[in-house]
Design goal:
Elements (H helix, E strand, L loop, with lengths): L294 H4 L23 E3 L19 H8 L31 E7 L1 E5 L6 E11 L1 H6 L25 H12 L18 H14 L10 E2 L4 E4 L9 E7 L29 E12 L2 H7 L6 H18 L1 E3 L2 E11 L3 E14 L2 E14 L5 H7 L13 H11 L3 E4 L7 E2 L2 E6 L4 E4 L2 E4 H9 L9 E4 L10 E3 L3 E3 L10 H11 L3 H15 L5 H5 L3 E2 L4 E7 L5 E2 L3 E3 L18 E2 L2 E6 L4 H18 L2 E2 L5 E4 L8 H14 L7 E6 L4 H15 L3 E5 H6 L2 H14 L6 E2 L11 E9 L10 E8 L7 E8 L8 H16 L5 E7 L6 H19 L7 E7 L6 E3 L15 E3 L10 E5 L11 E8 L5 H11 L14 H13 L3 E2 L7 E6 L4 E5 L13
Parallel strand pairs: 25-27, 26-28, 26-29, 29-30, 32-35, 35-36
Antiparallel strand pairs: 1-24, 2-22, 2-37, 3-12, 3-21, 4-6, 4-8, 5-6, 7-8, 9-10, 10-11, 11-12, 13-14, 13-20, 15-18, 16-17, 18-19, 22-38, 23-24, 23-31, 32-33, 33-34, 36-40, 38-39, 39-40, 41-43, 42-43
Helix pairs in contact: 14-18, 15-16, 19-20
Amino acid sequence: MSYSGGGGGYGDQRGYGSRGGDHGRGYDDPNRPGSGGSGSGGYGDQRGGYDQRGQQGYDQRGGYDQRGGYDQRGGYDQRGGYDQRGGYDSRGGDYGRSSSGYDEYSRGGGGSYGSGSRGYESGRGDYSSGGYDDRSRGGSYGSGGGYGGSGYDDRGGYGGSSSHAGYGGSSGYDSRGGYDQSRGGGNYGSGGGGYDDRSRGYSDGGYDDRSRGGYGGRDDRGYGGGASAGGGGDRGYGGRDDRGYGGGGGDRGGDRGYGGGGDRGGDRGGDRGYGRRDDRGGGDRRGGDRGGDRGGDRGYGGGRGGGRFGGGGGRGGGRGESGPGVGTVTGSGYESIGDPVADPRIQDEWTGRAGVRDVNAEDPDLQQEFLICRRPGLGRGGKSVQMQVNYFGVSLDSAPPEIFKYHVDVERSPDLAADSKYGPSGADQKDETMGDEPKQEGKDEKENKEDKDVEMSDVSAPPKRERRPERPLPRSLVRNVINAALRQYEAEFGGIRVVHDGMSAMYAPAVLPWDSHAKTFVDVNPDGPSPTPPQPPPAAGDAPRRPFRGPRTFVVKIKMAETISTNSLKDYYSNPDVNVMPVLQALDVAARHLGAQRLITVGRNFFSMKKTFPLKGGKELCWGYHQAIRVADRKLLMNVDQAATVFYAPKELMELVLPALNARSANDIRALSERDARNLARALRKIEVVPTHRKDRKRAIFGISAQPANQTIQSIKGESMSVADYFSKRYNINLRYPHLPLVNVGSKRAGKENWLPIELCEVAPGQRCANINELDTAEIIRQTSQPPRARQETIIDQVRQAGFENDPYLAAFGMKVEQRLEVTEARVMDPPDVQYANVSERPSGGQWNLRDKRFVEGATMRNWGVVISANVGERDVQGFIRNLVDMAGKSGLTIEDSNPHMIHMDQYRGAQVEELMKMCFKELEARNRGPPQLIMVIKQDKSVGSYSDIKRMSDTVLGIPSQCIVSQNVRSAKPQYCANVCLKINMKLSGKNSILREPLPLVSTAPTIIIGADVEHPRSGMGSRPSIASVVASLDRYSAKYVARVAAQKASSDIQLLPHMLRDLFLAFYQSTNRKPEHVIYYRDGVSEGQYFDILQTEMRALRKAFKMISENYNPPVTFIIVNKRHHMRAFPNNPRDADRKGNVVPGTVIDTGIVDSHRFDFFLYGHSGIQGTSVPCHYTVLHDENKMSAEDVQRLTYHLGYTFARCTRSVSFATPAYYAHLAAARARFFLNEGSDGASTVGSFNSSSSNFDFTELHNDLKNCMFFI
């Protein structure tokens, strides 16, 4: 994952920005440096009026031109951000030239965009011709540096001449930081400069009466909140608010600061602040009264003003509040909490010396059923805001009192079933073989038999036909058969509109008009009418013909199942024990029925295939929409969202073969290696193709041949010939690529293959592609990312296009869908303060930086090495190491060995990176510097293949942490990148980067273990590869250190080895804290809503078993929380001033009313600041809570845990324990190997073509954050 810097702007949309980033760089993950984006900067909120094109640019609050803001990919517009009339503020980033770039520590761009830029001058020197000033934190924008022509003065004043719309006169801010007296305004507007009253600017020294508050004007008393004569009125800057911008509401405004004025900043920092939402100023509860005391000296907004919008003081504009550091933090933090274990017998249990206790499977505690808990109440903390959400009200005013459910069975017609090797209800997916041409007039048995022998099998040992166990018909076929039955027997349904789910459930709004409760429909033909063709008499000497079997037909049986009362919904609103699922399922099927008939269905998503985008490798990205019915707080809602997925493009099969083999053309493909053949078979597995040499229906690919077409020999009437020769003789087709393998479209069973040349196959349309690589993923993100406003409009448009108003099935079931978005209440919680050894900071917009910060517990690296597996010069490597060592020293990570042992691939021609790592490890062992601690690997690019080889070697064979560096980052050696690397190395060496100042609910008051669990399943098309289960657990009071256990298992949603993994983690917690966990908080990721109850039973019993495996009487209370990001809820702030600069929901926003179930203990939480597109919240559901936590405590704990993620200086989108479990599972996926190399193998798994060995994590890394 990669992180970019935030943009400029007054915290959310104001002039002083919050650490802008350089386009394309940003907060880079050292292993996977990512996209990044620059900050936008800007006075105002992008909605205002001073652009000649209307509705853009500066508005009455000062304006940012929408042409220069973030584009929809999150990067800075190539036209340079601010247009030429505006200025870039003190901390905004830029689009990027070599003269600008990253500040040494923050994610912001310290340079400037315009030519000849000087930026700030600083006693410490500037960075990249316009870098950070130690007091001002930012560069400049306009030509000549500064805002206008003169730049910032020595106090960080706002300066510049009026050139290019500079706000102010020729001198800018004077030495006292006030607004210059010489000119009232810039170049624009009438009467001495400024905005005139028609454009809602300031007219000759202040805002007019419609904007309520002077902007500055002709007095030297400060910018926002100056004296009553200078601010253009009593109320300060104000924007559209009556209460002033920052200073003391005018009367006590500034001698010194911008937006805080005076030594005391107007005493109160403004009763109402900058016109934000709260009456305490600055945008949240921490603004206002405390905003002015330190305003002038400590930067924009004051000591604690501005709150979460980043206006609040500290060391300069836009950064959060700063405070004293916490010093060095060693130990677990539980040393003074609780009592250590004194009983030697219990000590033996918790140190593991007593061994694993046997647990009786019949123990009553392991048979207990765990009930899903109810909502204990609502969260109360935070500021209330209004949100529009992508839910649409559904009324049932005309719904029938009862809905009738019928069970549907689909079987193959008896005459065909008898001939089918799958049985009467089996899916004979090749009831006419690929070798049998469609039976046409004049085709005789001799010809058909010949085709079958050639294309069906290698006739060296044709097996006898044998019956196989029955298997279900394909779902797509079942849907088509039911639809055909409804068409063919329409009169039998008496005009009643029925709906079905494409499987076994059918619903009707009235009883179907049959004498009995069951009905059978025969000869249902999903392929349409197909009369038996006439057969001419056989010619003399012809063999007897095989009878024409006719079209494939089916039998459909429909039987009454149950009657569902629609009143159960109303009953559920007051009684949570009412089972509401039957009526919800019925209504959902009815709402989806029309879309399922017209469009391609993938899960709950619909695709028309009209809007597509071509991807490489024969794939295309398709847009559609998601739809689902949900029950909420005393109402029914429909969730609609934009959806996008990848389909195989309906092209020649060769379009998929070439990229699978990394070939440019078919002529480049010769004899395939075993690995290439295996990769090709996986890439083509289950793709349906249509032959081009004759008319036939689509067939699924089951594998490829071991030999090419010209070497695959078949026997035809006793004559042996190759498949290539057969097609030449039989179809007069000379294969262009006879050296390519064949695809099997027959059966996986030996002797039942049906071979076709690749060049004679086309990919059937409408097939979803689940095998997505990293390049595809990057392009998908670029194409699907939409700014919030654009996504909101897209969703509304999709609702219109879906045609719910004219849907006859909705009308039949009495449903009416509203056409406007629902509005619900949300709350914005305060962020925690992040503490370092020497300073603490309140994050702004969910992010902070590492400038001048030291880790609370710095590790020491004495013995490490570097493996260079890339084309990079020694000088570049040495320069990178110097920068890394320097940055580590500033951050508190001690690197004693500044000249690590290095091995370059040029020294060992042909050696793989794993061999180079082994050689490096041996050299480190031979040094007299203690055990090896880390191997840094410099790799050429971001390829997953080499990365997985490196991690598998370090994590399972060598038992030493590794750190990958891409050669490009070695050459650039940016300080910010080096800081990111230090973050990761410090944690891998058991250090601690930072902790939170605020106590974590429950965790800080008693020894509490926080567990994250996840199961990563193989992607579709990856055969029978195993799933990877991972469980992580905290080791201290701060949620700073974690350890992980990973395991491979057969595909399953539950974690099969969970009791043993948990026992190990509980013992690790005791080893770290000398305390038994008194409470357990369990975050579980990777569970769908339909699995909630089963997972709760399985894993709560696993927890109970783990407790008993340690001690008979150990049974701490557990809070069990599901973490889900795979949902389609999107929210849009009702008031743009409640959004961030991109229009997204701000971090800390929680929604637990309106759109959630009133009985279930769940909530949506925005834990992060969106980098690209529309932010996605995380959905948390508390299934079980023995700790009796309040809703407020669960929400605050979950949100604050997002600030403990160790490898970046941003809050993350979901709770850190679950995030770590996800990372550990993804890392352990690399431990799967098709063949063992000597590492400890703990399991073997069969695929359709491969055996997989899973090598366990090395013992030396079991108490290390190897996955970070």
